[in-house]
Design a protein that fits this description.
319 residues; alpha+beta; twelve-stranded antiparallel β-sheet
C-alpha cells in the first residue's frame, strides 16, 4: 500500500513540475501579448490652463482643456505581419470648455506584441493636425503606448511625440489606484528648442510691426505614467506642459501651459481593466508555477521516501 501511495505521489509530483514548466514556457508567453483587436478611448483634462488661439493671435488663461484620444487596431495590417505585430491608429483632439478645437493629431504606430517595442513597418506616420495630407513618415523607437509585460522598477525608453525621439522614463515609486497596484514612471524633459517657425512680427510685442519673424518653438514637459506592471497598461497619464515661442532666448508667447491628466472616469476604468488582466497574468507567470514547483518537489520527496521505505521493509521481512 505504501508503495502504491509512493508511486502516486511520484506521478503527481512529476505532473506538477511539468505543469509549472508549461505555464512559464508556453501558457504565459501566449497570454502576454498586445491584443490584435485594440480599441480604447481616454480622456484627459486640465484646469486653469493657458493656451494660444491662432484665430486671435493671443494666449488666454483660466481655461479648462479636454484632450480625447481614440486608439484602434488595424487588423488587416496586423494579419499581413503574421500576427506578432500590433498596428494601432490614433487620433487625438484638444478642446477648450466651449468646444473650440485648439489642436489635433494623427498617429500610426507598429509594435512587437510581446516586447511592446516599436517595429519599423506598416507605413507608420505622425501628423500635427487632423488633415491626412500632413502625415509625415515616422520611424518610431522605444515604447509608445504601453510598458512591457512584467514591467520592472527600472528606466525605459519612451517615445516623445513632440521631440520625435525616445526619452528616459525613470521608475520613481509604487502606488495604489482604485485598488490596483501600479508602478510610477516619470520623464523630465527640460526646455528644448526643437524647431523654428515663422510667425507674425506683432507676436514679439510691437503691435505696429509688419511681416514675419523666425522664432524658436520651445517644449518643456514633465510626464508621469502610472502603469499596471503585469500587463504594462498605462492606467493614468499626466503632463505638466510649458510650450512657448522664444525670440533670442526670451519667451514671447505661451502656447500651452499647465497640468493635464486622465480624468477619474478613465483612470477608474483603466484600473479595473488592467487590474483584472494583471491578476490573471501574475497567476500564470508567478503564483501557479511557484505553487506547482513547491508541491511537486514535496510530492516527489514524499513518494521517494514511501517507495524506499516500502522496499527496505520488504527486505527485512524476507530475512
Amino acid at each position: 500500500m505504501r508503495k502504491v501511495a509512493g508511486l502516486i505521489a511520484l506521478g503527481l509530483g512529476a505532473f506538477l513540475l511539468v505543469s509549472a514548466l508549461m505555464l512559464k514556457v508556453y501558457a504565459y508567453p501566449a497570454l502576454a501579448k498586445v491584443p490584435l483587436d485594440q480599441y480604447s478611448k481616454s480622456v484627459s483634462q486640465g484646469q486653469n490652463m493657458e493656451a494660444f488661439y491662432v484665430s486671435d493671435l493671443a494666449t488666454k488663461s483660466g481655461l479648462t482643456l479636454t484632450s480625447t484620444r481614440f486608439v484602434k487596431a488595424d487588423q488587416a495590417a496586423e494579419k499581413k505581419q503574421g500576427g506578432n505585430v500590433a498596428v494601432w491608429d490614433s487620433f487625438v483632439r484638444s478642446t477648450d470648455q466651449n468646444g473650440t478645437v485648439l489642436s489635433a493629431g494623427l498617429q500610426r504606430v507598429a509594435m512587437d506584441r510581446t516586447t511592446g517595442e516599436a517595429v519599423q513597418c506598416c507605413n507608420t506616420y505622425n501628423a500635427a493636425s487632423e488633415d491626412p495630407a500632413d502625415q509625415q513618415a515616422t520611424a518610431y523607437k522605444g515604447l509608445i503606448f504601453k510598458m512591457p509585460f512584467n514591467a520592472q522598477k527600472q528606466t525605459y525608453q519612451w517615445w516623445d511625440n513632440t521631440l520625435l525621439k525616445p526619452v528616459d522614463a525613470k521608475f520613481v515609486r509604487t502606488q495604489d489606484l482604485f485598488g490596483t497596484n501600479v508602478y510610477v514612471y516619470r520623464m523630465v524633459i527640460p526646455a528644448t528648442a526643437y524647431t523654428q517657425q515663422d510667425v507674425p512680427a506683432t507676436l514679439a510685442g510691437d503691435p505696429k510691426a509688419t511681416g514675419n519673424i523666425t522664432v524658436d518653438r520651445v517644449y518643456e514637459n514633465t510626464r508621469t505614467l502610472w502603469v499596471e506592471p503585469n500587463t504594462g497598461i498605462v492606467v493614468k497619464g499626466e503632463e505638466v506642459l510649458n510650450t512657448r515661442f522664444q525670440k533670442d532666448g526670451a519667451d514671447i508667447v505661451t502656447l500651452q501651459k499647465g497640468t493635464i491628466s486622465y480624468d477619474d472616469k478613465t483612470v477608474k476604468a483603466n484600473a479595473e481593466d488592467a487590474g483584472g488582466k494583471g491578476s490573471k497574468l501574475a497567476l500564470v507567470h508567478s503564483t501557479l508555477p511557484l505553487t506547482f514547483l513547491i508541491l511537486g518537489v514535496l510530492l516527489l520527496l514524499a513518494g521517494f521516501l514511501l517507495v524506499r521505505g516500502n522496499t527496505g521493509r520488504g527486505r527485512r521481512e524476507a530475512v
